[in-house]
Amino acid sequence: MREFNYREKWKELLTPEIVSMIVQIHEYKGEQRLFIESKADSLSSLLEIAKIQSTEASNRIEGIYTSDDRIKALVLDKTNPKNRKECEIAGYRDVLNTIHESYEHIPVRPSIILQLHRDLYKFEGSNTGGQYKVSDNEIREELADGSYRIRFTPVHAWETSSAIEELCDAYDSVRKERIVEPLVIIPMFVLDFLCIHPFGDGNGRLSRLLTLLLLYREGYIVGKYISIEKLIEKTKEAYYQNLELSSYKWHENENDYEPFVKYYLGVILAAYRDFSSRVKLLTDKELSKPDRVREIIKHNLGPITKSEILKKCPDISQITVQRALIDLTNKEDIIKLGGGRYTKYIWNEEKQ
Questions:
Q1: What is the pLDDT of residues 31-82, one digit of tens each?
Q2: Going from the N-terminus, what domains does the chain have, and what CATH number goes with each?
């Protein structure tokens, strides 16, 4: 039977690399608090964009998607879902909003997990949501030739309820005692949740929502302003690879949490770095709007599109961005790649 021994196992993960990542995140967390307290008005646009990106990315990882216009209208609650996929998107939106608004009052208990899962499917008019799986399931990967392989076999359906109960008890126990580092325990909890795989559907999406809930409750609220789900989608292959590495011999209590913990800390750290750079661009009064466009392109790794620039600086109008791009291109500060809707821009390193 699987044991959730967080009290001892977390200590094994305090490698120099993991400790360094934790220290950096703690530093960004302090900086984040000052940003939020002093620049709350400037951050409202980042909050809206992050909600859209989080809802879109987390669902797209699972093959659930719709058009850009529809996803924006759904997340901003300006339209009703038209089909099953849009029902699932709207459900994610509502659970995400619940966590954003009430995380301080949402303990991590089995009843809460069931309730959040129920709300994921509340627009579907079926009994899909809020009930543990009634038959055994497998985590499968589709191969290039169309065949499948089994990546992991979760706990049996009859074990699910007790496993979730023990998981929540183990997490709650060490957090109440304040004897562990939350940034280590949170990805351990998420991995165990995914290995239990308690539902017939929606496990991946709910795991990402639980990630936000656990982080917010510990004061790491960067996910409100920078989409952690988007960062996971961008590194999806690494996500699945590290999940598989850390779930090997999970049933035998011999699995190694380190790959998955390092991956998750890397995502959180990337979110904080992005948050820090975006806030500085939003609040630096010495930079004009065209100069901010210039700095975004200069410090971006690789090509960037106009729409991506607009997302990084939502207070700058599309016309202003377009004028800045034309001016920078004419000066040969940037290089224009492609054309039409697929046009990208990259900093001209040769001019330095």
A1: 877 777 766 666 777 888 899 999 999 999 999 989 888 998 999 889 999 9
A2: 6-281 (1.10.3290.10), 287-351 (1.10.10.10)
